[in-house]
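Throughout our pipeline, every protein is held as a single compact record rather than as scattered files. Such a record has a labelled line for the sequence and another for the backbone structure tokens. The remainder of this section carries one protein's record, kept here as part of the documentation:
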Amino acid sequence: MTEPVDHPVGPYVKQETPDFRSPGRYLLWLVTRQWRRVAAGALLGSSWMICLTLPPYLLSRAIDDGLQPGGRSALVGWVAALVGAGVLNAWLAIMRHRTMTRVRLDGAFRTVRVVVAQATRLGAALPRRATAGEIVTIGFGDVAMIADTLTVTGPGVGAVLAYVVVAALLLTVSPLLAAVVLLGVPLLAVLVGPLLGRLQGAESAYRDRQGSLAARFADIAGGLRVLNGIGGKDVYAERYRRGSQELQAEGYRVGAVTSWIQALGVGLPTLFLGAVSWLAARMAAQGDITVGELVAVYGYTAVLVVPVSSFIEGGYDISRGLVAARRVIHFLSLEPDSMGREAPSAPLNGPESPSVLHDPESGVEVVPGTLTALVGARPSDSAKVIDRLGGFVASAATWGTTRLDEIEQAQVRARILVADNEADLFAGKLRDVVSGSRDRDDEALRRAVHAAAAQDIVRGLPDGLGSTVDAQGRNLSGGQRQRVRLVRALLADPEILLAVEPTSAVDAHTEAAMASRLRTARSGRTTVVTSTSPLVLDRADTVYYLVDGSVAAVGTHRDLLDEQPGYRLLVSRGADDDDAVPVGDGAGPAPQEATS
């Protein structure tokens, strides 16, 4: 298959770029990725369904031939053949089920892989492009729906062949019965078709509302302490309750359509079976067909219930699968934040040696090998400069003589690390949490823990570096989480480290130790921090004082204290606050956390 897109959604296999031009094309892509297994499943499913027609035929021959005078040997032979057909059908059913289970699992895991790879590709843009609820809905619901849809490739193909075989067998018995079957099955599909269209609309609305509600729940859970502090918990709980009731109503709507489809899937084939059996019985009573042929017709029609039910269930699964695939391809079509202009067809390499980082919008210029600090009355102004220097948002920032947006993104991410103060902490052993993607030796861990003044965290945990950290570090205090993030950033040892407020949640004593050790640990490397703490600023080689997002003054901390009243007022306020409210971290959360 010719791949329709240029960019790979993930680094694992370049040839496996999913086709997300439409939901149907995405489902077809999942099928073609495992076409041999799908073909085996279709062959086994077809063989199984076709072999279901053998028992009625063998039973009719046993009746017509074996119940004749002197037909004992014929009866034994046909009965033996009937037993053999039963054993064969059992084996085919087992193999069909095993094969289609593998098809489902392959489709599910392949979808999970491309979704995770896309989430990685989006990076920092992910929270702005998709809600947590949408990701959860895809992971827990849509993946399973898509996997179930792929099952249609087995019994679905077999149902078509079984329908043709049964019609051919009935034609040998009675052209009238064959005509009834050939016309009756398409009529069942026509009756169910409109319901499948309604189901797609109802399922789409339900999944969208489900994703929104899941996102709201995640927001409430994440901000529960804040909501308690400002008295807003009941307000948000009431909103969630109303949303849940609306989702319930949508669920009833989906359930109503689904129940009709399932009822028709059971009821219509049964009515069809009754009609054909009644017609065959009348023909037998009139002598047009034999008793054995009557039994065969009943058996053929009973067998036909299986493919007819498969038609209806397959249509139901495909309808739901298209809804799920539509959500997946919407996520896969999201693009990372634009780097300010269209990316060049051939990305450039970054500078070979340490070079200046320059942000024209603010005027900040980071000299290689120095510790640079950004100070602003609004912390968001400093954070925006960091985002531009880190290549996270659209800007004209340059690295050396080259614009950041023209450099291959993988190089930027490998050499420039943005250490956000709110970066996620994943669940796991503390050693694994801070080590990242590479194993670290004990000496490297010891140095990083010491540089981040985090020895007390390791000592305070029951198993030290082997202790378990909860998701988002919920079993740690705010200051402890901040230092664990700094340990992780230092272990990454990037060429350029851009740290946002790395010491904002610790006490003055710990902050002084962190500032001193950070400078030592990053000696000879380029480091940028945002802070208003004099303890940190006094360690910086260069301080940029920002006003309304632009550089108002630049110099050392001492020079700016003497020359800039605004700067002096800003950092002195921070010093006064530190003296007035010691932000203790060692034994518990910082006071600002407790009040939130």
Summary: Residues 133 and 212 are 6 Å apart (CA to CA).
